[in-house]
Every structure is written in structure tokens, then in C-alpha cells.
Amino acid sequence: MTIQIGERLPEGSLGEFIETASEGCAIGPNLFKVAEIARGKTIAILGLPGAFTPTCSAQHLPGFIKLADQLKTRGVDEIWCVSVNDAFVMGAWGREQGAGGSVRMMADGSAAFTKALGLDVDLSARGMGTRSMRYSMLVRDGMVERLNIDSAGFDVSSAEKLLAQLG
């Protein structure tokens, strides 16, 4: 069952490759509990089928990086890019895309969080296995306020669409 507007994000953890050590975060992959890091924040989440894939790399993620300041001006505290990849891959993709400081590159290596959202898709026919549907959502204090799921392309889940929904 797909998560709905008004529902709380499911329990789960996401990985993030940290490049600079800070209090509570070592250099390298760190695992974060979604409920803890979403508490009290407004978060824009974009879900993508895979790191380094053509549409994700050329259009979808770059839109969120480009509009990060505008999203934050309209009340978004953090932007998360979630994909069914490991933290090392997400970290490398974030570096390549210049996401540092604007978008947190969150790994869902086993697709557990994506499956709990009901936003998983079987792309085995393309050699990719279980992946994430392409989506964007706005979450306030762990509750889904907006949910935009693409069936093809990325118009519905684009950064521009989410920004327009913020008013």
C-alpha cells in the first residue's frame, strides 16, 4: 500500500556518506533513523530509481540542487534525495552532482524504507532489481503533506512542481 497524504513516514533508517566528521557523525557511511532526523523539520524528499542514471543525473536531481535556496526560503529545512543504492554510491553521486550543502544524498541500500513507503518498483527487466519509483514529497514533522508520483518522466515530481505547491 502506497503512503498517503496525512500519514506518518514509516520507521526505517537511511544511510548517508559523511565527508567531514562532526559531533555524532564519523567520516564514511552513517545510518540515521528517519523518525529522528525528520522530527520538527520540513523536508522535501525526492525519490529516484538510481544514482548515475540518465534522467536522474541530467534533470531530476539537478533541479532540486538548483532550486534548493528557493525551497529553503519557502520553509524547507532539508532536501533529501533517496535512492536504492548504497551510501558510497550516493556519496560519490552527490559529489559529482555538486549536491553538498544543498541536498542530503540518502541511501536505502536494501530498499526497506522504499518498500515501507509502498513506492518500490521492480526494474529487473532492465537489470536494476527493486528500485524506487520517481516521486517527490513534502514532509512536516514526519507527516506527508504533499506526494507527487510520476508514472513516466519527471514532470509531476520535479523541483519546480514541489516549489509551486509551497505557494
From TrEMBL:
EC number: 1.11.1.27
A cellular component annotation (GO) from this entry: cytoplasm
Top-rank EC class of the record's enzyme: oxidoreductase
SUPFAM superfamilies in UniProt: Thioredoxin-like
Gene Ontology annotations of biological process type: cell redox homeostasis; cellular response to oxidative stress; hydrogen peroxide catabolic process
The protein's role, per its UniProt record: Thiol-specific peroxidase that catalyzes the reduction of hydrogen peroxide and organic hydroperoxides to water and alcohols, respectively. Plays a role in cell protection against oxidative stress by detoxifying peroxides.
Protein name in the entry: Glutathione-dependent peroxiredoxin
Annotated organism of origin: Massilia forsythiae
Source lineage: Bacteria, Pseudomonadati, Pseudomonadota, Betaproteobacteria, Burkholderiales
